[in-house]
C-alpha cells in the first residue's frame, strides 16, 4: 500500500535515515483538524521501533483520555505497513515477536484530583510522544518527563503533538516566543524541530466533501475559529486576561540587587487542599528613573502543604536577608504564622499579619493595574520551575475563565499591592 504524506514531514523521516545531522531532542508537531499529525507521528515511531530498535511511550495528560483511540491509531499503522509479524498488541502495549515492549501508553494524571501517575515505567524508553500536549498544564510537568528520557545508546526524542491554543500557553512561551520562532514555522532552531501542517498540505481526496464544505463555511462565518481549529494557528490572549505576558516587565537578575530600600516577603496561604501557597520575595526600590518598583527576585508557588512551605520560606527569608514577612492570617494563614514565629525564634525578620475581608475578585480588580505598573520579574524565570509556573498562572488569570488554580499568583501580587499602596503612598 502506497502511503502519501506532506513534503513538510520529510525532515522528520530524515531522522530515521540519519540524514538530519542536527542535534535534535525535541519535535513540536502542530496543525489543525485533518492535518495528519497523529497519522505521521505513529508511522514515524513504528518505523523507528522496527528499524532502529526504539522504545516509544505515548502519553496524554489523563489516563482516561488515552483510552483506546491512540492505541488503535498505532495498531492501524502496523497493519498498513504490513508489520504484524514483527509487532503486535498485547495488554495495552505493542510488543515484538520476543514479547519485548516496543510501544507503551500511559496517562500523566490518573484521575480528577491531580494525582500524578507513577512514571518509573518511563525509564528505558528513548522516544516520548505527548499527544494533545495543549492539555498539559505547565512546563514543570513536561520537564519532569523530558529529563527521564535519557537512553545512553539511542537517540532521545520528546515529541509534542498538539492543536495550538492561546499564545499564553507554556508551549508557545517556552518553545516559540523564547526561541524567536513564529507559529507555522517548519524547520530546526537549536535542538528543536518544528513541523506545521494543515489539511491543505494533505493529498487530494484525504478528506470527504462534507468536511471540506464545513471548513469552507467556518472560514466564512468565523475566520478566527477557522484559523485556530482548521489552520492550526495560535490564538491571541483569551478574553478577560488582566495581565497578559506581553505586559510583564522582565529584567536581568543582577538588576534586582541594585539600590533597594527594603527586602520583604508577602505570603498568600492556600485556602483549601490543592490550592497553591504563594510567597513572593521582593526588593523594593525607588529612583528618579523607575520611580517605585517591586522587584520579585524569588518565588515559592506550591501545594506541598503549609508545614513544608513554612520551613522553606523561613530559610529563604534568612538566607536572602528579608527584613519583614507579611502574611494573610485568614484560615490556614494563621497556622502558617504560628509556625513561622516558632522557626524565627531569633527574630531574624519582623513577622506581620494582616486580615483580609474583601472578596478576592474585587481585590484583584482594584489592584492588578498596580502590579502591571510597579512590579518587575526575573528575566531568567524559566530557570526555576516554581517561578515559571507562577508567571504562567499570573498571566493566564482571566475574569472570563474560572480556573481557581491560576488565581493564587494574582492574589498574592494584588494583596502585596494593596499593602504597598498604603505604606508607600507618598512615593506613588
Overview of this protein structure:
The chain is α/β, with parallel strands linked by helices. The protein has two domains: 7-230, Rossmann fold (3-Layer(aba) Sandwich); 245-427, Nucleotidyltransferase, domain 5 (2-Layer Sandwich). Helices cover 34% and strands 22% of the residues. The chain contains 13 helices and 16 strands. It has helices at residues 10-16, 37-52, 63-66, 69-80, 139-146, 170-177, 209-221, 223-230, 306-319, 332-343, 360-374, 385-394, 407-423; strands spanning 26-31, 56-62, 87-90, 93-96, 101-109, 127-130, 157-162, 187-189, 192-197, 250-251, 262-268, 277-287, 291-302, 324-328, 350-354, 375-378. The strands form two sheets. The chain has a nine-stranded mixed sheet with strand order 3-4-5-2-6-7-1-9-8. A seven-stranded mixed sheet has the order 10-16-13-12-11-14-15. The chain is elongated and about 75 Å long. The termini are far apart. The relative contact order is 0.11. Residues 110-115 have low confidence and may be disordered.
Strand content: 15-25%
**CATH topology of the largest domain, anyone?**
Rossmann fold
SS summary, helix count: 13
Helix content: 25-40%
CATH superfamily of the largest domain: P-loop containing nucleotide triphosphate hydrolases
Gyration radius (Cα, Å) is 25 Å
Q: In which order are the strands of the major sheet placed?
A: 3-4-5-2-6-7-1-9-8
Q: Could you say what the CATH architecture of the largest domain is?
A: 3-Layer(aba) Sandwich
Major sheet attributes: 9 strands, mixed
What structural class results from the helix and strand content?
Answer: alpha/beta
Q: How many runs of DSSP E, i.e. beta strands?
A: 16
Amino acid at each position: 500500500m502506497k502511503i502519501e504524506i506532506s513534503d513538510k514531514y520529510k525532515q522528520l523521516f530524515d531522522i530515521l535515515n540519519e540524514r538530519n545531522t542536527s542535534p535534535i531532542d525535541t519535535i513540536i508537531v502542530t496543525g489543525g483538524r485533518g492535518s495528519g499529525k497523529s497519522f505521521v507521528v505513529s508511522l514515524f515511531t513504528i518505523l523507528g521501533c522496527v528499524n532502529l530498535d526504539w522504545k516509544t511511550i505515548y502519553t496524554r495528560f489523563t489516563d482516561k483520555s488515552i483510552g483506546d483511540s491512540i492505541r488503535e491509531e498505532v495498531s492501524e499503522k502496523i497493519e498498513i505497513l504490513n508489520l504484524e509479524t514483527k509487532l503486535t498488541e498485547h495488554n495495552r502495549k505493542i510488543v515484538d515477536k520476543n514479547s519485548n515492549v516496543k510501544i507503551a501508553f500511559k496517562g500523566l494524571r490518573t484521575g480528577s484530583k491531580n494525582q500524578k501517575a507513577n512514571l518509573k515505567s518511563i525509564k528505558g524508553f528513548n522516544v516520548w510522544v505527548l499527544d494533545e500536549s495543549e492539555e498539559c498544564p505547565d512546563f514543570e510537568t513536561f520537564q519532569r518527563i523530558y529529563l527521564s528520557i535519557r537512553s545512553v545508546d539511542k537517540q532521545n526524542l520528546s515529541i509534542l503533538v498538539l492543536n495550538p491554543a492561546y499564545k499564553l500557553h507554556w508551549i508557545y512561551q517556552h518553545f516559540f516566543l523564547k526561541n524567536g520562532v513564529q507559529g507555522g514555522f517548519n524547520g530546526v532552531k537549536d535542538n528543536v524541530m518544528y513541523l506545521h501542517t494543515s489539511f491543505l498540505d494533505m493529498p487530494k481526496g484525504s478528506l470527504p466533501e462534507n468536511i471540506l464544505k464545513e471548513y469552507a463555511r467556518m472560514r466564512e462565518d468565523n475566520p478566527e475559529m477557522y484559523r485556530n481549529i482548521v489552520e492550526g494557528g495560535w490564538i491571541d490572549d483569551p478574553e478577560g486576561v488582566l495581565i497578559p505576558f506581553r505586559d510583564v516587565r522582565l529584567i536581568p537578575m543582577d538588576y534586582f540587587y541594585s539600590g533597594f530600600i527594603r527586602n520583604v516577603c508577602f505570603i498568600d496561604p492556600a485556602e483549601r487542599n490543592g490550592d497553591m501557597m504563594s510567597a513572593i520575595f521582593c526588593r523594593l526600590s525607588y529612583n528618579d528613573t523607575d520611580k517605585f518598583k517591586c522587584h520579585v527576585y524569588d518565588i515559592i508557588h506550591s501545594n506541598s502543604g503549609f508545614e513544608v512551605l513554612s520551613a522553606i520560606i523561613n530559610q529563604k527569608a534568612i538566607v536572602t536577608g528579608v527584613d519583614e514577612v507579611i502574611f494573610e492570617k485568614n484560615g490556614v494563614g494563621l497556622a502558617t504564622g504560628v509556625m513561622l514565629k516558632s522557626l524565627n525564634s531569633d527574630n531574624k525578620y519582623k513577622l506581620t499579619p494582616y486580615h483580609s475581608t474583601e472578596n478576592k475578585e474585587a481585590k484583584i480588580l482594584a489592584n492588578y493595574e498596580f502590579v502591571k505598573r510597579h512590579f518587575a520579574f526575573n528575566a531568567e524565570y524559566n530557570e526555576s520551575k516554581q517561578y515559571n509556573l507562577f508567571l504562567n498562572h499570573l498571566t493566564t488569570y482571566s475574569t472570563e475563565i474560572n480556573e481557581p488554580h491560576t488565581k493564587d499568583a494574582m492574589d498574592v501580587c494584588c494583596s502585596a499591592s494593596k499593602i504597598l499602596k498604603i505604606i508607600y503612598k507618598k512615593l506613588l
